[in-house]
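User: Fold this, then the next.

Assistant: Folding the first:
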Amino acid sequence: MTSPQPSALPRLWQSLWYRLWLRYPTAERAGFLEGLRRFAPALPATFSWGLVTGVAMSKSALTVPEAIGMSLLVYAGSAQLAVLPLFAAGMPLWTVWLTALVVNLRFVIFSAALQPHFSHLPLWRRTILGSFNGDLHFVFFMQRYPSTAREPGKEGFFWGMALVNFAMWQVASIAGILLASLFPDAWGLALAGTLALIPIMISTISSRSLLMAVFVSAVLALLFFDLPYRLGLVVAVTGAIAAGMASDALMARATLGRIGRRGERR
């Protein structure tokens, strides 16, 4: 049996990918494409933040291979940035792990919110799905699917956002690692990356409850900025959730009160 000619290899790979694509239900394929379109406006912000993280890793105590490995395996910008000073200071490994764990505690909350949507999936699929969870596409997913009822296309929508986010993050991060010498510290790339994220986050505010959560989290993040191990981030996330839930409860109570008063007038 002869091996495929080099010119035939691209067509072979295209055929394999196409057959794999067709194995998934039509609704999931449509959801995947919808997820790609939904996340597309956030790609410049993802690129900016990934580039900042890559440059920071390259200019830290990590070697280039170590930085690339960290980008591929950790895939958590906030945690990566949080542990870099600990590496530079030669802190014990348990301290590095604890810091990363604390910074990523918000994903426990995110996963708990996603669990009802994907509880019907096998454990291994839920584990892989959770490994690719992220801040922005979690927000976009919850906006798109406020109900936890089973609906065709949900998983495809999530993966459409998650995979394009992962791909853009790795391209930007590795570019930052390899090209870090071209970016002087005086350029203020960290500030630029943060500013790129702000418009995307503002665009996700679609209710009074979300506005209250954003306001509370911003105040708490400033007040507790100097806490060790980035605990201020955990305080801000917890406060935002509490503020959002309280706002929802107050609005529901006000709605019930208006309904009651209308009934009494009738």
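Now the next one, as you asked:
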Amino acid sequence: MKQKKVAVILAGCGVFDGAEIQETVFSLLSIEKDGAAYEVYAPDIEQKHVINHITGQEMSEKRNVLTEAARITRGKIQPLTKLKTSNFDALILPGGFGVAKNLCTFAFDGADCKVNPEVESVVKEFHKAKKPIGALCISPVLLTKIIGNTKVTIGNDPDASQAVEKMGGTHITTTHAEVVIDKENKIATTPCYMLDATISQIAEGADKVVKETLELILDTPLDESIER
């Protein structure tokens, strides 16, 4: 059987202004453990702002999303413009505030957010090709903004779930490591750090959403998922 290939899009490095590191690392580990291969991409753009992760305060410096994301992948990363949908079987989007600040403006504009054109193009290409997309944490709101009529979860946050509904999606309330499957759109989502979670719960959630995403390639989701 041909090895499955997964594209992963990152939003920088660090929960408050980039990609959530633990969600990213556990997703990459799960992809490899499940016998698939991955390549990582990020938009080559300036990130919205830089946050001191000790104090939570904004810093007076500028950083690049691609350069920062390269810290997580030990430099093995490419600009998002290099991603060719035809080379992959599925797409994974870890979370982190960078998704809502750098990949789109959800953190500032809510349901009226705008999406980075490169990110929007890639997601639309995967969706049009009926290739599965897995999204963790806040990333499902990005998918709903782009695709519209989706079934996703971000856990139980009322503001984010209302925004999903406003953007035309259906939100399913979940807890740790539960995965919502949208069969029609081939989307698998899980809340991860949208909930108060331990690192082991994040690992479990990432592992399950990766497995479900890979299973969607064959249209055979696992029994432990939530299908609505």
